[in-house]
Each structure stands twice: as structure tokens, then as C-alpha cells.
Amino acid sequence: MEPWKIMQPSFAAKYVGYLVPALNNIGKQASPSVDRCIDTEKIVRYEINMALALSAEGFAWSHALKHKLRPNVDNHNHAGKSQSYLAHDDDHRNTIPVNHEPAAKKLKVDPKRSETEAAEEEEERLTYLRKLIPGGSGEMMVDDEILLSELGSYVSCLELQVNVLRSMLQFN
Amino acid sequence: MELNAGAGGNGSHKTASERDEVAALESLQFTDEIRRLMSAPGGDNASSFTALLELPAPQAVQLIQSPDSAKLIAAPAPAPAPNVDDFRGSFQFPFNCGLIDRAARFSVFAGDGNINGNNKSNSPEPTSYNSSASLQKPVKNEPAETESSQPLVSDPTVENRSIKRKDREKVKGSSKKSKTSAKESSEDAEKLPYVHVRARRGQATDSHSLAERARREKINARMKLLQDLVPGCSKISGTALVLDEIINHVQSLQRQVEFLSMRLAAVNPRIDFNLDSVFTAESGSLMDSNFSGMVIPMMWPEVQLNGNRQQYPQQLHLDAFQQPVSGREEVCNSYLTPENSLLSYDSSGNSASLHSNQLKMEL
């Protein structure tokens, strides 16, 4: 069961291969304006996510992420896409305080909970996870099994992405 | 005699009629011994029984030959102490199978602590008897039995108690039969964990629940993989908690990506990224990560489209790394350690596509 180790290097290669030139392009599009910092951030964020989506093709979440970034319209509008991604980000930020809720609920629950209660809790967690993973609420991931396997790949790719980004920052 | 009276009062049972005859013969001889055993403190069952065995030979022989009277004696023996099994093991002499049967059944009875409570007092209360009876496996036969033997309860004799015990034994025997039938009919009356499991499995004969179980097992397998993937999850038991951990991990990773992207954006205008240095740095960091739990799904239809890829800026020398070769070959072997030699592709019809990485799910 080592297919992921096989995908690892190709992910890194693709990711960097996409991101580095994109970032370089951003740098070259020098336009001295006040908003540039924010735009740069958005653009960088966009490119980072696009790199993720492209480096891990073949997953429902990467498919969904790609479509979220570029809703299949052939306009390469960075501001627009990063707006939508920013909205996605806001979701993340909004969910951070919400994160404490499941933990709190977990503590309040009687350890001798019945089966149905445990199943309900599971369901809660799963719906929460659906919000976290791109495309989790979509039709591809309705099945719990698929959701869990997508989660596995998503978590792995996120970790890879973090490693790539760290090394990019470290050595540049 | 009391014993006779007690025995006579229970004429409805055929065993009682048997007991009548036997008790009439030996009541006189055994009463003293029985009383002695009754009054024995919570001592050794074996010792009290072997003490009984020191009876004169004819009495012992009669003891052997009459299972009922032996039961009379065996009955008070559990009284002081609950465990008749000890006492059963001390049988040193041959006896007939009926005796073994009854002794065995008595041991089951004696396993119910309430019998002792019932027997210790010279005047057993009906309530205690009823409670002991009710604590045994509830079967419809029992209430009938208890009611019929209630008149006996007031008699403060061993014989009565033994008769009650016999009733209970009989009830128990029948209750066992009805229990097995109950097990088959309704699956709610189990007390033993084994029966619980069997009851649940009985439901699996339904095809729908079979599918449900299979699905459940698959989900559990995926959960295990996720547990391996997320650090610190392997010790946690319980799906909800594991999912909690996964949620936390995903959120922390997303936050890290956010943070790093901000840093990158801050750094970006000033620095020209050098690909080679990035790759060499990465080869070390990537191998450290734990990706063993990764499950790679079947290809998605979108992957077959070739159009989108070409829109992105790609440097020429990178294309070689990004296009999976059909068949099983290494990718990116020029600069990364070739430990991961095999790439498994679902090459059914899609290997021609340049940009599709179809990795098969292997479980």
C-alpha cells in the first residue's frame, strides 16, 4: 500500500514546476501601486492553490479546487479568482473559531454514549470535514467512503504542499 | 414429620411423589446431619459434605442410591457458601448419573447468591424466594412454579427448601429450554454476551444489512488509514475522536499554507526563485513526511481533458517530469532519489493523455 510514496516526488515536481514560474511572473509584473501587496497576496494564494490542484490530479478535491479557482470559464482573471478563493479563505478563517465547537461537544458527551449518539457525532464530524475539503459538499463526495479516501489524499497533499512551500522559503 | 409434611404439600410434581417415598424412609436418619450442615457457618462445602460422608456406611449407601435424598443433603451444603463447584469436585465415590445431573443443576442454582440468602434463615421469606426466582432467567414457567411452591416457603425445613430448590431446578431446566427458544424467537432476552453477538449476526442475513456491514468495514478500513496518516491518531479509539483529530490536523495544515503563502507573497517581488535549489531542498524534506496512508482513487473524468494544462506557464525542461509515461516507469528520476521506482497507472485508455495521472486505488 505504498502508492502514495510513489506519487510524492511527482507531486513535488509538479507543484514547484507550476508555482515557481508563476511566482516569477508575478514578480515580473511589477506595477507600483498601493494595492499591490494585497494583490500579490491574493495572486500568490491563488497560484499556490492552483499548484496544489494541478499537482494532485485525479482526486475529487483537486478537481473541485480547480473549478473553484477557475469556474471553467476561460478567463484568466486573477483578481476575480482570488476573490472567490478569498471567500474560500474567509470560510477557513470563519471556521477556525468554530473549530472549538466539535472539541467542546466531544468533552460534554457522556463516554457511555449509545451507538446512535456516536453515529450522530460521527456524522457531525463528517459534515464538518466536508466543509474543510474542497468539493466536500459536492456530488462526488456524497459517499462517506469516498470522502474518507479523499481526505487521506487531501491531507497528504496539504502536507506535501507545506513542505514545498517551506523549502522554497528556506532556500530563497 | 416436617419433612413428610413438606414433601406431601407438593404433590403436584411427580418428583415430589418420589421424594415422598424416599423422605419417609430416611428422614429420621438424615435430619440431624442435615441440621448440622445447615447450621455450619460459611465453611468449606467440601468439608461439610465429606463430613456427611463419614456417616455410617449404610446411610452413605442410601445416600448414593437415592438421588433425591442426596439432593437433600447437597442442598444445604451450598447454603453456607455459594460455590458448589468446590464441593462437587470433592466427590470421591461413584454415584449415579442422576446425582451428577442434579448436582450440576444445583451448582447452577448455587451460582445465584440468593439461594444462600434464602437458605440460611430458618424461616425463608417468600419475598426472598421470589426475588431469587425472579433473578433467575425470567421464563413464563417460573411464576407458575413459584406460586405453586409458595405454600412451602413458610415451612422452615430443609426439606421444604430442597423441594423449592427442586422446583427451581425444574424450573431452571425448563427455563433453559424456553430460553433457547426465546433466543431463537426474540433476540432481546439475552444475558450472555455470546448471545448478544449471535443476535446481532442474526440480523446480517438480510442482504441490506450485509451491504451495510461491508460498507461499515470499508469505512473502518479508511479510518484506519487516516489514523496512520494523521499524527497522534493511532492511540485514539473511537471514530468521532479520530475525526476530531483529523479536523484539527486539516485546519492546522490549511492555516500553515495560508501563513506560508503570505510569507511567500512578502518575499516574492524581491527574489527570483531558483528551481534547482528548491528541488534539492525538497528531496530531503519530502521523504520525511509520512504518507503511508494515502489512498489514490480512480481517475476522474476531468483528468482526461488536456486543454487546461497547456494554459499554464511551464518551462520546457519541466515538462519531462510532469508527463507520466505510460506503463511503469520512474518519473522525476533525474534529481530525486529513485527509491520510489514504480508508478502504477490505470492505463486503461488514458495513458495516451499527456496530463493525466491516473493512479489506481490499491487496498
Overall 3D shape of chain A? elongated
Q: Rg of chain B to the nearest angstrom?
A: 39 Å
* Total beta-strand segments of chain A: 0
Q: What series of H and E elements makes up the topology of chain A?
A: HHHHHHH
Q: What is the strand content of chain A?
A: under 5%
| Main sheet: strands, sense, barrel of chain B | none
Low-confidence stretches of chain B: 1-12, 42-46, 68-82, 113-156, 171-190, 194-199, 290-363
Helix-strand category of chain A? mainly alpha
Classify the oligomer: heterodimer
Q: Helix segment count of chain B?
A: 16
Summarize the structure.
The complex is a heterodimer of chains A (172) and B (363). Chain A is an all-alpha fold and 172 residues long. Chain A contains seven helices and no strands.
How would you characterize this protein structure?
Chain A: This is IBH1-like N-terminal domain-containing protein. Chain A: Residues 10-70 form the IBH1-like N-terminal domain. Chain A: It holds the Pfam family IBH1_N. Chain A: It comes from Hibiscus sabdariffa. The complex is a heterodimer of chains A (172) and B (363). Helix content of chain A is 76%, strand content 0%. Chain A has seven helices and no strands. Mean pLDDT of chain A is 72; it is low at 74-108. With 363 residues, chain B is mainly alpha-helical. At the A-B interface, α1, α2, α3, α4 and α5 of A face α13, α14, α15 and α16 of B.
Keyword list:
heterodimer; A: 172 residues; mainly alpha; 7 helices; elongated; B: 363 residues; rod-shaped; disordered N terminus; disordered C terminus; transcription (chain A); IBH1_N (chain A); transcription regulation (chain A)
